[in-house]
Amino acid sequence: MSDFLDAARKEISLSAADPDLARYLATHPAPVAAVDALIRDEAGRLLIVDPVYKDGWDLPGGMLGDEGPVEGLRRELHEELGPLPARVGRLLALDTVPKDVYGRTLIASVYAVHLEHPVAAAELRLQDQEVRAAQYVPVPDALARLPEQLRRRVQAALDVEGGSSTAHLHDGHPVKTDQRDHYALLPAPLVSATALVFDRLGRVLVVEHPYDHGDGVFFGLPGGMLLAHESPRQGAAREIAEELGLDDVPVGRLLAVDHVPADRYGRTVVLHVFHVGPLTEEQIASLHFADGEISAAHWLTPSEAAERLPQRVGHRVTAGVKALRAGSIAHLEEGVPHRGSPAGLTPAERSRLEQSGSLGPADHLAVRPKTLTASAVLFTDPGGRVLIVRPVYRSDGRWLLPGGAIDSDAGETPRQAAVREVQEELGLSVPVGPLLATDWIRKQHMTEVVHVYDGGVLSAQQLAEIRLPEHELAQWRLVDSDEDLAGLLPEGIAPRIQACLAARASGAGAVEMVNGRALAEGAVAIVYRPANGELLLHERDEQAPCWPGFWSLLGGALEDAEFPEEAVVRELWEEAGLRVREPRLVDRVWDLSGSQQLISVFAAPFDGAVEDLVLGEGRQLRFVPAQELDGYRMPPYLRAVVDRWLQRGAST
Question: Tens digit of pLDDT for each residue in 90-116?
Answer without folding.
Answer: 899 999 888 888 777 888 899 999 988
